[in-house]
Design goal:
The complex is a heterodimer of chains A (521) and B (269). Chain A has 521 residues and is of the alpha/beta class. Chain A is built from 24 helices and seven strands. The longest helix of chain A is centred in the middle third of the chain and has 35 residues. Chain A is elongated. The C terminus of chain A is likely disordered. Chain B is built from seven helices and seven strands. In chain B, helix 1 packs antiparallel against helix 2 and helix 5 packs parallel to helix 7. The chains are: A alpha/beta (521), B alpha+beta (269). Chains A and B meet through helix 3, strand 5, helix 9, helix 14 and helix 19 of A and helix 1, helix 2, helix 3, helix 4 and helix 5 of B.
Chain lengths: 521, 269
């Protein structure tokens, strides 16, 4: 097999130096013949003196049109190397080489991306999709001349590629190169891979047996079926709302310039928070739809407290929820009023705490999500706006959908597994029922428009304050939403946010229960 | 590694397409109603259309190759797709927590509904019901009438309305003979001659199904298994049961029944 290694990156980004470095490594000697294709002439030149493998052929490629099937056929005919290193031109689209039909046993093995740390962010901002596409196809990114602060580099790289490995120093780069070029390392990796594959096959076979067992055993199948019913039910009702949410998010990304949104939220110093809380009234979508919107707001640079307030308050102040609460508690509009008020209160308190703690969006966003650039738009170049909106909606939908799948499944399993007896204790105090209802809301992940109806049915067991806690906190604190948040925010932040909400919710609803003695409003 | 397409985008597009087609089939065949409230059908239509459109828009882009694609992460979506196709729709098990609410207080018969009314959401008579979103005129009109033999038969489609009505004003039914259909349901602590013939009410989706039915007592009920469909005829009395005032049906006749056409009942508020 002939391995082709592609080195790409800007002009003067250290490609030649990196290739020269590879050629000087002793593990290269087993290779029969190494061909270097140079698509770009930089200041650096190759020095034959330091090379460990003496059979190195250097060849220049002048134009992009030269890259094609004929080139590699000619190489196979005339040079017959067993390793090809390509120093790719930074201004040629990477797709050109990726699309090329290669001779039988030729294969593009790795794409390395070299970057000069001092100019990387600047170039990424200015060179458009060309560089981004090279980066997004890279297996690893090698920074040189790094300063002490690696965070901006990481953020900028991650905004384009979530999967590429990033190397900031020579030690890491050396290990990475050894894994690619050292025949001994390659053999070792192949052994590990084979072992992993065998293990995976065993696990898979085991799963199949387990599944077959589930299907055939009469006792378990109804339980599986029951879990499946709930699972599909939750997922199915979430799909349309998630789509709407992704659509709004895509529209925000394409049509609304970042600074307009940010200014909208921060124009009034005092009014910013209440405004964020009330804005949800104009987004009459379910809580599962609001998460992508809120994530997009944060990415666009809206201050984190504002975005969080918006996200938490939106399900409580949405007209659909108000209506459903009115309907679910007939004759008692106080429930709807209390729901709106306590929802806004908890959201505002959470925002104030975040504000006081000076939590910055940059610290809690995942590196890939931190960049405000419309990166996914570039990696999928579109001709028209409509096309762009649809593609973007789809990608957002899929990336959020993962979390819906996980959330819905765990919720369905928990509903099946948790014994009902857990909830049969009549709460003497108010504290215990509130906690219990919060716990239940967390695992049930019921839509904000529906949970008033479910909450109402608890009125016979628990005091009104606990039921309100369920109804209000459910959309804020539920499992599938938290899963979705981890797609945009760091896990530690999501956990802290959940903890904060719990801490805020308990006193707020305890206080409420003081006003509603006996549990009846 | 030498892929000529963008496998990630290809799978995304494929997932959207399959999901869209699945939604179309689900709504067309009426299977969607097994899982979610029919009022979502409009949304599902829309979602199916949008998903197919997304798939079509995405597809041309999959032809641009991507080197370091990681298609394995999309395996997760196989789970719901396969679950929909492979596992046939069945009953949601009655022991699940979703029934916790009604089961919790030991008042299975009344369901969550009635006791909520009893404990605090009773509608004062003076309040005109229309203001609360309850269509008072039709709710009165649609209630079934007694036939000549003094039996009031509740049709399948009238179950929800009747159930709401009896919980709102159980006195109205005291001493009347009713005939209604439901699935046999028992709870721990039930006497041998006690069952609840119930229907499941769906608010939004299968995650929030609630059992609705009234406690029925009488000879002959013990030979029906859980989840059997039965017609129950009996006289309504109002009793205290585990600390709750609720209507109880004293069964005079119980017979097997065909399953109701609609899987769930839906309350119109």
């Amino acid at each position: 097999m002939v391995k082709i290694e592609v080195f790409c990156g800007f002009l003067e980004s250290g490609k030649t130096t990196l290739i020269q470095h590879v050629l000087e490594q002793s593990y290269l000697w087993p290779y029969r013949r190494i061909l270097i294709l140079q698509c770009e002439k930089g200041i650096e030149e190759f020095h034959a003196a330091g090379m460990k493998n003496k059979n190195v052929v250097l060849s220049q490629i002048e134009g992009m049109e030269k890259i094609g099937p004929e080139l590699f056929e000619k190489i196979a005919d005339q040079v017959d190397p067993d390793l090809i290193l390509i120093e790719y031109n930074g201004t040629w689209p990477i797709e050109r080489i990726l699309e090329t039909k290669l001779p039988g046993d030729y294969k593009i093995d790795r794409v390395f991306f070299c970057a000069d740390a001092s100019t990387f962010s600047l170039y990424m901002g200015n060179t458009g999709s060309l560089m981004r596409n090279q980066l997004s196809n890279a297996d690893s990114v090698h920074f040189n001349r790094c300063g002490s602060d690696l965070r901006p580099l990481e953020a900028a790289a991650r905004s384009v590629s979530r999967s590429a490995k990033l190397y900031f120093d020579e030690i890491g780069t050396d290990q990475c190169l050894a894994a690619v070029f050292d025949p001994a390392e390659i053999r070792k990796a192949r052994r590990v891979r084979r072992r992993n594959r065998a293990a995976a096959a065993v696990v898979l076979a085991g799963l199949c047996f387990a599944l077959a067992g589930l299907f055939s055993s009469p006792g378990l199948f109804p339980a599986v079926q029951s879990v499946n019913m709930v699972f599909i039910g939750i997922a199915l009702q979430a799909i349309p709302f998630l789509l709407i949410g992704s659509f709004v998010s895509a529209l925000l990304q394409i049509y609304v310039p970042d600074d307009v949104l940010v200014r909208f939220f921060t124009r009034h110093k005092a009014l910013g928070f209440p405004l964020a809380a009330l804005l949800g009234f104009f987004f009459p979508i379910c809580d599962c739809g609001i998460v992508p919107v809120a994530s997009r707001l944060t990415q666009k640079g809206v201050p984190l407290p504002h975005a969080v307030i918006f996200m938490l308050a939106a399900p409580a102040v949405s007209p659909v929820t108000i209506l459903s609460t009115l309907v679910a508690f007939p004759g008692q509009p106080s429930y709807a009023l209390l729901r709106v008020l306590s929802g806004m209160l908890v959201a505002l308190l959470a925002g104030v705490v975040l504000n006081l703690a000076r939590v910055k969006a940059g610290d809690v966003l995942l590196p890939g999500a931190a960049a405000s650039c419309a990166c996914s738009v570039d990696t999928v170049p579109c001709k028209t706006r409509t096309e762009q909106i649809f593609v973007l909606t789809g990608r957002e939908f899929i990336s959020m959908g993962k979390y819906i799948v996980i959330g819905a499944l765990s919720c369905a399993v928990l509903q099946q597994v948790l014994p009902a007896s857990l909830f049969q204790r009549k709460g003497a105090s108010v504290f215990f029922p509130i906690l219990l209802m919060l716990f239940l809301a967390f695992f049930m992940s019921v839509c904000s428009t529906a949970n008033a109806f479910i909450g109402r049915s608890f009125l016979n067991v628990f005091p009104a304050a606990a039921v309100l806690a369920f109804v209000v906190m459910g959309p804020m604190l539920d499992l599938s939403n938290l899963f979705m948040l981890t797609g945009t925010f760091r896990k530690s932040f999501v956990i802290r946010l959940a903890g904060l909400l719990l801490l805020l919710a308990v006193p707020v609803f305890l206080l409420l229960s003081v006003w509603t003695p006996g549990g009846i409003l | 590694m030498n892929r000529k397409i963008n496998s990630e985008l290809f799978l995304e597009s494929l997932i959207c397409l399959l999901l869209g087609i699945l939604l179309f089939c689900a709504v067309l065949s009426g299977k969607a109603a097994l899982y979610v409230h029919p009022r979502l059908n409009g949304f599902l239509w829309m979602a199916a259309g949008v998903l197919v459109a997304i798939a079509l828009f995405m597809f041309p882009h999959t032809l641009t190759p991507k080197h370091n694609a990681r298609p394995a992460k999309y395996l997760l979506f196989l789970l719901p797709l396969l679950a929909c196709v492979l596992i046939p729709a069945g009953a949601v098990q009655s022991k699940a927590v979703s029934f916790g609410p009604s089961a919790a207080g030991g008042k299975p018969a009344a369901g969550g509904n009635s006791s909520a009314q009893v404990q605090g959401t009773v509608i004062p008579d003076s309040v005109p019901r229309d203001d609360l979103g309850i269509d008072s005129s039709s709710s009165a009109a649609a209630l079934p009438k007694e036939d000549e033999s003094g039996v009031t038969t509740i049709p399948d489609e009238g179950f929800a309305r009747w159930y709401q009505d009896i919980n709102r004003d159980m006195k109205k039914y005291e001493g009347k003979t009713l005939k209604f259909k439901g699935q046999v349901f028992r709870m721990a602590g039930f006497a041998k001659d006690e069952i609840v013939p119930l229907r499941y009410a769906m608010v939004c989706c299968t995650a929030d199904l609630q059992p609705c039915g009234i406690l029925s007592r009488g000879g002959g009920v013990e030979k029906y298994k859980d989840n059997d469909w039965v017609w129950v005829t009996g006289k309504i009395r109002i009793e205290e049961y585990q600390g709750q005032t609720m209507p109880v049906c004293y069964v005079t006749k119980i017979e097997p029944a065909d399953p109701a056409k609609a899987n769930y009942i839906y309350f119109t508020y």
